[in-house]
Model the fold of this input.
Amino acid sequence: TSATANSAITFTSDSYTLFPTSKVIITTRRSPATNIKPQYLVQLLQGPAAYCDTFSAASTSGVVTMSLLQDGSATKNEIYVLTVGADAIGGSIAMFYGSSAGSTVQITPGNTLLANSLLTSLNSITALSGGISVDSDSSGTRYYISFVGNLALTNITTALTMDASAVQYAKFYNSTLTMGTSEGGFVAI
Done:
């Protein structure tokens, strides 16, 4: 608070380092008048400084997955769901029924024929030939593999698996972001 009415604000005996993004905001809280001393609010701000000091490859876990959706029984067909996320941009997956390998399935961006490729791969396994259907959802990211025909209404004990180690993924990186702010509080003078 100033000592006399209509006095100027001065900063004495204190030194301030103002960075290029720093600023001082002075607001009048109480205007001076006869017998009323002015009061100013001084806000010293230093803008946030942000920098990144490390980068690491983002995880591709969960981009291409396959899981059992429904066990087969006397009233239901066994169904697996294969999910191919948008970050899978190429390469291939290999399908297996137990230790029997199917043909390799190519993954390309926007591949609307992936369901047909999966069906061809699985039908190339002798034990599954003619006993599989593959349908995709409207987004084209989920493929439902159903045991049908001579494998319908059966609890299949041999596992259907895939190897996605040859899938190519979009390159995304995680970063460690360090932010520092030094916002001075309000000082009434």
Summary: Residues 1-20, 178-189 have pLDDT under 50 and may be disordered.
